[in-house]
Write a structure and sequence with these properties.
The chain is mainly α. It is 73% helix and 0% strand. The chain contains 12 helices and no strands. It has helices spanning 11-38, 47-61, 63-69, 79-102, 105-111, 115-127, 133-150, 159-181, 187-207, 215-239, 244-247, 254-266. Helix 2 (47-61) runs antiparallel to helix 9. The longest helix is centred in the first third of the chain and has 28 residues, at 11-38. It starts with 10 loop residues before the first helix and ends in a 5-residue tail after the last helix. The relative contact order is 0.24.
Length: 271
């Protein structure tokens, strides 16, 4: 079957990739809701510390795989690419968590819908993916929606918006490297490396704002780590079945999850 706007993929593989992408978006959004719950400057845990603990608990998530398969799941011929991707992903994660401390969940998620545009442009130039008119049209609507959220000229520009855009640029780099790595490494290998390598990277920033978390906060941080780990595995596995740019429009569903969580849990009514 010809995937509209992209390369050829069998129907079962394409549907599986879509399902994994939607599942990944749900896990990520759920983790962002928890971050919104426990984050905030001067009140609770700093976003830098949340980023560290989410990576730490994500890394622990892979211990059962290491015990069952040994270090085989860490076998790779592209360690340098994994390290570079970890820096991109750590920057994306940290800036996004900072944005959540400043901005309502639904607004952050809506503005992040501009991210697929960065990924698609990157896939065109760096991965050689063919991007056809339908896909460009879908992504353009997403970018236009992000402008509606920003409302240029009508309201003051929130610092949180700037952190979201920076986060999405870094996330695009991480996804492009992930797609490249899936050609030789498994989804578990790619996800384990990013969690393990990000932990010391984010620890450095966290040490400057360190506050010892409570038992309840540790519980929520562990939940974030597990959700992020499952989201990463789902996302990278989807890249094995479809072009990275083909899956980007399905991330728009994250706005539905974010709006629902923001309304029910935080009483944040979307504009």
């Amino acid at each position: 079957m010809i995937n509209p706007g992209g390369a050829q993929h069998p129907v079962p593989s394409l549907l599986l990739a879509v399902g994994l992408t939607v599942l990944s978006g749900f896990f990520f959004t759920l983790s962002h809701g928890i971050i919104r719950h426990i984050g905030g400057f001067g009140i609770s845990l700093h976003p830098f510390e949340i980023a560290f603990f989410s990576n730490f608990f994500s890394a622990l998530f892979y211990i059962p795989f290491l015990l069952r398969r040994g270090t085989q799941i860490l076998h790779t011929s592209k360690l340098l690419i994994h390290v570079i991707r970890a820096f991109f992903n750590a920057a994306s994660l940290t800036t996004f968590y900072v944005a959540l401390a400043f901005t309502p969940l639904a607004d952050v998620t809506a503005l992040a819908l501009a991210g697929p545009l960065f990924v698609t442009v990157g896939a065109l130039f760096f991965l050689g993916e063919i991007i056809r008119a339908r896909r460009w049209m879908a992504l353009s609507f997403g970018a236009f929606g992000a402008l509606i959220i920003i409302r240029p000229g009508l309201e003051g520009f929130s610092i949180g918006f700037l952190f979201v855009i920076l986060s999405q640029i870094c996330a695009a780099g991480s996804k492009l490297f992930a797609k490249h790595l899936t050609r030789s490494d498994s989804a578990i290998t790619c996800s384990a490396y990013v969690a393990i390598l990000q932990t010391p990277i984010t620890l450095i920033a966290a040490l400057f704002v360190w506050v010892t978390p409570s038992i309840e906060q540790l519980f929520w941080l562990a939940a974030i780590g597990v959700l992020v780990a499952m989201a990463h595995i789902s996302m990278v596995q989807a890249f094995k079945f479809a072009d990275v740019s083909a899956m980007e429009p399905f991330h728009f569903l994250r706005l539905i999850w974010a709006a629902a969580i923001g309304l029910v849990v935080f009483g944040e009514l979307p504009g």
